[in-house]
Amino acid sequence: MSPSDPRAADARSRQAGDAASLEELQARAGAHVMRSYGPAKGAFVRGQGTALFDASGRAWLDFLCGLAVTSLGHAHPAVTAAVTQQAGTLVHTSNLYLTEPAIELAEKLARIVGWPDARTFFAQCGATANEAAIKLARKHGKRQHEDKVRVVALEGSFHGRTLATLEATGQPAKHAPFEPLAGFVDHVPHDDADALTAAVGDRTCAVLLEVVQGEGGVRALSPEVLSAARDACDRHGALLIVDEVQTGMGRTGPWFAFQDTDVVPDVITLAKALANGLPIGACVARGAAGEVFEPGDHATTFGGNPVVCAAANAVIDTIERVQLLQAARARSRRLGDGLAALVESAPHAAGVRGRGLLLGLELDAPVAAELEEACRERYLLVNAVAPDVLRLAPPLTVSRQEVDLALSALEEALHAVGTSD
Ligand SMILES: Cc1ncc(COP(=O)(O)O)c(C=O)c1O
User: Fold this and answer.
1) Superfamily the domain 323-421 falls into
2) 59-62, strands of its sheet edge to edge
3) What pLDDT was estimated at residue 18?
4) Which residues on adjacent β-strands are paired with residue 74?
5) What's the rounded Cα separation, in Å, for the pair 404 and 334?
6) Nearest by Cα to 391 from 380, 399, 378
7) What is the pLDDT of residue 418?
8) How far does the centroid of ligand 1 lie from the alpha carbon of residue 126, in Å?
9) pLDDT recorded at residue 73
10) pLDDT of residue 295
11) Less packed terminus of the chain by CB within 10 Å, N or C?
12) Domain spanning 78-321 has what CATH number?
């Protein structure tokens, strides 16, 4: 049987406890999984806290958290207990019926966002949360006049890969294979308050932005751009949607990145860390924005699934119980200071940006991919988010020792890359 023979795969998957090698997994994935992702850079069988373990039992320091997702670390006991309990009780009913975990989560979100009148629509991921927000804004706009359906978004942004969110994503290379797109989004530079003000008009139903652009290279927006967005929305009856998919749930310091600014959006979208790795998205709206959707306007079969909502409730409870936002701020200072010291001493390290535990190490040359690989050779997982920026996003639960270990692996990696060019 060849590696691509399904019988070979079935036979292998029956060999419980006998972990497949990376090469074997790559061959099997190469045969039957679509090639939308680049070649995998590793394979893991288990996680615990900040560590991921490969098939040989080797521990890796996970300073990426599955792209800012597993913020409580891997296999957090509170999440495991909530998922296990709920999975053994009730997994799915559809939205024809009520289940308590989703209602409890909507209540908790209203409290931590700080909007007593907040209403939530539950989706499956970041893109579907943004898709809901865009539909909501279009309906809100069309109530004012029929062609108030345009969205203003920023260059360099990332909002997802569904057709509407792909179009909102300000990265033309990602559009190219799928053009023509619908053409309802106007993009402006991420750091130009005047351009943003000029782009918002009577046909604009929403401005959509990230307070810190994650995939766009860990770039924080200026307070001027945020205020310009709020003012322009107020002037033109448009909604301000803040995409907190990557920044939310304590990643940048507060529960949500907007809470460290003077600007209050009408809608926020969440996903990634909300359920510590289980698939969930949420579109949370306040005031009139929360009243826009009526029965039949929007729906999804798995939205508000009791198991993922139980996981998200455990995430929020845990963050509050162990005061994790405060602890994460201390770790952020230690990691930020350590990175700043590397800027002084190590080759290529040129600056530090980002907030909280979403940090970018700026490099003086396009060596981020090489540096990512050099870190992997030292069992440290980080990623090249731009050709000259390395992203670090460890769990909020990361220990001081783990921060120090990661910094020394990174220092070695910088020297290795520095001497290789
Ligand atoms: C800010 C932001 N919005 C939306 C998304 C899309 O989320 P998902 O991949 O869960 O659809 C991402 C993913 O990286 C993101 O960072």
Assistant:
1) Aspartate Aminotransferase, domain 1 (3.90.1150.10)
2) 46-48, 51-53, 59-62, 380-381
3) 63
4) 49
5) 8
6) 380
7) 86
8) 5
9) 98
10) 97
11) C
12) 3.40.640.10
Mutation choice for ligand 1 from 159, 167, 219, CB with most ligand atoms inside 8 A? 159
In order along the chain (421 residues), what is the average pLDDT of each group of 10 residues? Answer: 39 51 90 92 96 96 98 98 98 97 98 98 98 98 98 98 98 97 98 98 98 97 98 98 98 98 98 98 98 98 98 98 97 98 98 98 98 98 98 98 98 92 70
Question: What's the order of all strands across the beta sheet hosting 150-154?
Answer: 119-123, 281-285, 267-270, 239-243, 204-209, 150-154, 185-188
Residue 301's CB is within 10 A of a number of other CB atoms, namely 9
Q: Return the closest-CA partner of residue 245 out of 380, 388, 358.
A: 358
Instruction: Map out the domains of the chain as residue ranges.
Output: 78-321, 323-421
pTM exceeds 0.85:
yes
Query: In this structure, what token pair is assigned to residue 100?
Result: 């308590």
DSSP, res 49: B
Structural element, H or E, at residue 281: strand 281-285
The pLDDT value given to residue 13: 43
Residue 125 Cβ contacting ligand 1 at under 6 Å: yes
> Apex CA 403: angle with CA 399 and CA 408, to 5°?
145
pLDDT value, residue 321:
98
Give the position, in ligand 1's atom list, of the atom nearest the Cα of 161: 11
Tell me the backbone φ, ψ of residue 255, rounded to 5 degrees.
Answer: -55, -45
Distance between CA atoms of residues 14 and 7, nearest Å: 11
CB contact at 8 A, 292 and 135 = no
What's the CA-to-centroid distance between 124 and ligand 1, angstroms?
11
Q: Output the six-digit token pair for 218.
A: 């860990």
Collect all residues with Cβ–Cβ distance below 8 Å to 384 and sequence separation of at least 6.
368, 369, 371, 372, 390, 391
Place of tokens 């345009």: 150
Residue 246's pLDDT is: 98
